């Protein structure tokens, strides 16, 4: 999480700056640390912490260390892109995982990042640097490329103009090359990140569409590089289509925030994913896979 560079000037901004002081690298903070990270004086930080603790947004332990409270967790579950999307997607994610035993991930776009909202980790598959709630730049990951390719054109150009960070020697940092990659993603319905985040991982992703046809998420399988994007493509595409249908069906049926029935309805439709993914698992990692490596090296 990016810390504020200038002090907040209103009450709401100061409260938010206190909450923004916490992140996965710093889930527990003292008053002094929060004051520094939020850019607030100690008295102001102490007053705001008292208010947030009383409301339940934060909790304070016996040593005076603050943690995020359950009240914020409860609010987080109300986010429309959270439980509804995850419940609709889970049957298809589980099918991909059961067939491939590889890392399966679901992400949404938030500003210039892919945010991971669900993941199933393979016990013996390649290690990944993602976790639930993690943010990664769009241009480096499979899900990020799928999301960026379907973002508004003006957003894409602004993203490319801001600079493309490199994480490995394979990361694509040339804007013109990335534009060509994004065009191919839109044409094929498939995004591939080959060793762009770590030098031992290949990610194959496809976009997930909501009931209105707009891309709302992306699903991916991550295998050890070199792997075969072509072998994984049918299963990943099928999973993305299944999740898209589940979302559309849920909305058409009037399913609310609880998404009741979406998961059950999706289970039957997801059966086809297993067959496609079973072949993908062998093809992605078996002999000759290196010769069928992804086009986006």
TrEMBL record:
Protein name, per record: Glycerol operon regulatory protein
Superkingdom of the source species: Bacteria
HTH iclR-type domain residues: 9-70
Keyword Transcription regulation among UniProt keywords: yes
SMART domains per the UniProt record, alphabetical: HTH_ICLR
Keyword Transmembrane (UniProt): no
Biological function: May be an activator protein for the gylABX operon.
InterPro entries: GAF-like_dom_sf, HTH_MetabolicPath_Reg, Tscrpt_reg_IclR_C, Tscrpt_reg_IclR_N, WH-like_DNA-bd_sf, WH_DNA-bd_sf
Domain spans labelled IclR-ED: 71-249
GO function terms (MF aspect): DNA binding; DNA-binding transcription factor activity
Pfam family, one: IclR_C
Keywords, alphabetical: Activator, DNA-binding, Glycerol metabolism, Transcription, Transcription regulation
Gene Ontology biological process: glycerol metabolic process; negative regulation of DNA-templated transcription
């Amino acid at each position: 999480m990016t810390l504020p560079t200038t002090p907040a000037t209103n009450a709401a901004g100061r409260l938010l700056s206190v909450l923004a002081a916490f992140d996965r690298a710093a889930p527990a903070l003292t008053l002094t640390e929060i004051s520094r990270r939020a850019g607030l004086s100690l008295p102001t930080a102490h007053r705001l912490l008292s208010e947030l603790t009383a409301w339940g947004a934060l909790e304070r332990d016996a040593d005076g260390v603050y943690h995020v409270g359950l009240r914020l967790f409860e609010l987080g579950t109300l986010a429309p892109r959270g439980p509804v999307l995850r419940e609709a997607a889970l049957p298809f994610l589980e099918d991909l995982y059961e067939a491939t035993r590889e890392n399966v991930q679901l992400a949404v776009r938030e500003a210039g990042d892919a945010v991971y909202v669900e993941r199933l980790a393979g016990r013996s598959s390649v290690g990944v640097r993602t976790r639930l709630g993690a943010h990664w730049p769009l241009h480096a990951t499979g899900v990020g490329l799928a999301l960026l390719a379907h973002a508004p054109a003006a957003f894409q150009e602004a993203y490319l103009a801001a600079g493309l960070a490199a994480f490995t020697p394979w990361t694509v940092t040339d804007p013109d090359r990335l534009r060509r990659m994004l065009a191919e993603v839109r044409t094929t319905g498939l995004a591939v990140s080959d060793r762009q985040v770590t030098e031992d991982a290949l990610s194959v992703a496809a976009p997930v569409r909501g009931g209105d046809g707009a891309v709302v998420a992306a699903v991916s399988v991550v295998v050890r590089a070199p792997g075969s994007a072509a072998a994984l493509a049918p299963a990943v595409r099928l999973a993305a289509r299944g999740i898209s249908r589940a979302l559309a069906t849920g909305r058409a049926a009037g399913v609310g925030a609880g998404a009741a029935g979406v998961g059950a309805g999706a289970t039957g439709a997801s059966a086809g994913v297993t067959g496609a993914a079973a072949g993908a698992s062998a093809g992605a990692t078996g002999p000759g896979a290196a010769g069928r490596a992804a086009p986006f090296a």
